[in-house]
């Protein structure tokens, strides 16, 4: 492993970095004294859109994470980590929810009316007490 800042191979371990699903080893370069984190090649942005789309499709179909990884590896030569797949699924479901909320404004209105009724009842009770 080499320092990404200056290319030196004189590096030492310098604590661990906790992320959402993974812990990464941090390093400090002995030459330029800068800190960096090991690269594992599993960043989501390195994968083509078609791979992400395929993974999401397989996930929606109900396949297990290990089965999805096996298919993607055997047919496409990519090895996304479980954490990467879960990241894709999470950002995808967020997009879906946002879409649904935009398309269905009615439940919100119902909720408001219901809330107003409750407030009214509480107000009446207080008035009679
Ligand atoms: Zn360096």
Walk me through this protein's architecture.
With 129 residues, the protein is of the alpha+beta class. The chain folds into 2 domains: 1-40, no CATH class; 43-124. The protein is 53% helix and 14% strand. The protein has helices spanning 49-60, 65-76, 82-103, 106-128, and strands spanning 11-18, 23-29, 35-37. It has a 3-stranded antiparallel sheet with strand order 1-2-3, with no helix packed on it. Residues 3, 5-6, 8, 29, 31-32, 34 line the site of zinc ion.
> What's the overall geometry?
elongated
Give the number of helices.
Answer: 4
Q: Return Rg in Å.
A: 25 Å
Distance from N terminus to C terminus (CA atoms, Å) equals 77 Å
Strand content: 5-15%
Count the beta strands: 3
Averaged pLDDT, please? Answer: 75
Strand count, sense and closure of the main sheet? 3 strands, antiparallel
Q: In the residues, how many domains can be counted?
A: 2
Features:
single chain, 129 residues, alpha+beta, 2 domains, three-stranded antiparallel β-sheet, 4 helices, 53% helix, elongated, binds zinc ion
